[in-house]
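Throughout this review, each integer encodes one residue's backbone shape. One record appears below.

===
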Amino acid sequence: MISVNMISHIHHGASQSFWISGALIFASLVYLRGCLHLRRHQRDHGFHENVEGWRAGSFVLGLLLIWIAMASPLAALDHNILTAHMVQHLLLMTLAPPLIWLGMLRKPLAHGLPQRFLQAISRPLRSEPVQKFASVVANPAFCWFAAASTLVVWHIPSVFMLGMQSQMWHEAEQASFLVAGLLFWSPVVRPSASTSKWPEASMLLYLFLATLPCDILSGFLVFCDRVVYPVFLSSPRSFGLSALEDQQCAGALMWTCVTVVYFIAGAIFTARLLSPHRPEELAIPAIRLAAHCGRAHGSTRMETV
């Protein structure tokens, strides 16, 4: 028998999928338009750094992962299967954000948006209160705490149930995971030179400490001998998994995915730390075109934050 909450979830889920799909498609088109415009501008001024191709692919892939998590058929399974719910969290917090940051060049965004819109938001973004807020948010300690607290709080059983029973809180949960993921990965990928003032070598400790709350939570889900979230006891069984097996699968998936992704990021940092070439550039590279494009483009385009 289908509950009223389930019917409401299906109804709101379809509406949510429509708006999210539209927003992500719009963001992709704006970015790709900016990349094409920037490439044409480089060609006209004699520049040949064709780096925006793979970055555009990374950016669009990150948006695609967000769509899979929030607007694809996977989103309709998160109320029935904890593993599907965990996949959503991993996509929004662990996989999509670094891909988006790797492709997040300011120039394509500036070239893809209307000039009047950029001029309208320029002054507010450069105001002193906004700059102070941005400096606090960009602090790696804040980014780490935001990610860890978001992960822990939303997996407290009572809070988890709130997100399962209310569409509004469920959407807030998904948005908070995405925002926390973007915050967490910004000091690691460093999409701009002012993102992090910490030594790049400290990012190894940053990544290691970030695995601890994930390991504790995933280990608890794997080895617990009872179902932590009772809502899944009455859910339709899918893929032949019991509620407890589903919980163990979700915990194992989180444990494996987070470990592998953080290990890859840590290995990149370690390799660059041990490299004898250009030791000052130790962060995961975010190739910047501002030096060339800014001189050639003059003041016709503004830098966005």
The chain has a mean pLDDT of 78.
